Amino acid sequence: MQDTDYISVVPLDILPSPYGCSVFFKTPKKVFVVNMDSTKFDNIKWALDDIVCERPTTFEFIRSMLEGMHCDLTRVDFYNEKDGVFYTRCTFAIQGTFESRIVEIDSRPSDAIPLALRCGTSIFIDAKVHQRLKDVSETYYKLKESL
User: Fold this and answer.
1) 3-class DSSP state for residue 128?
2) Among 121, 120, 119, 122, which Cα is nearest to 65's?
3) Cα 100 from chain centroid?
4) Could you tell me which residues come within 8 angstroms of residue 46 by beta carbon, excluding any fewer than 6 positions away?
């Protein structure tokens, strides 16, 4: 990870949208939105609502697999955004018998977000990326009110 400033983000909600679905995140200064395909809605909504399915979802399975391999998802970072497309990176800490290591893997937000939620992992955004994003607080609260 580059030596840069990151801001903690809190997943606020996921709502249907003309794009498919919109995931809203809150920081101390603004709310921003990540739009994605509607097929991602259930995995994120279930993770946000802490719903455990009778049979494990893909992300519950991955969480269990990571635990079994003594590997922790330590953070997820939004490290770039270009033309409404967000780029995320997952950081894993692997605990070995003789050594430990940190591994960073680029990921789609639609994979990184539900995995972070299932693992109870913090999500961050690069401060420079955050600064460029529009505050959609008003839009979010109007949409939420209309549902």
Assistant:
1) helix
2) 119
3) 25
4) 53, 57, 114
Say how far apart CA 118 and CA 99 lie, in whole Å.
Answer: 26
Instruction: Give the model confidence (pLDDT) of 72-103 as tens digits.
Output: 999 999 999 999 999 999 999 998 777 889 99
Phi-psi category of 137—alpha, beta or left, where left has phi over 0 and alpha has psi -120 to 50?
A: alpha
Q: What is the pLDDT of residues 33-71, one digit of tens each?
A: 999 999 889 999 999 998 988 898 899 999 999 999 999
Contact between residue 21 and residue 15 where contact means Cβ atoms under 8 Å apart: yes
Phi–psi pair at 14, nearest 5 degrees: -130, 130
**Nearest CA-CA partner of 92 in 112, 69, 73, 119:** 73
pTM for this predicted structure: 0.89
pLDDT of res. 68? 92
User: Residue 36 class from Cβ within 10 Å (0-12 exposed, 13-18 middle, 19+ buried)?
Assistant: buried
Asked if residue 113 lies in contact with residue 23, where contact means CB atoms within 8 angstroms, the answer is yes
End-to-end C-alpha distance for the chain, whole angstroms: 39
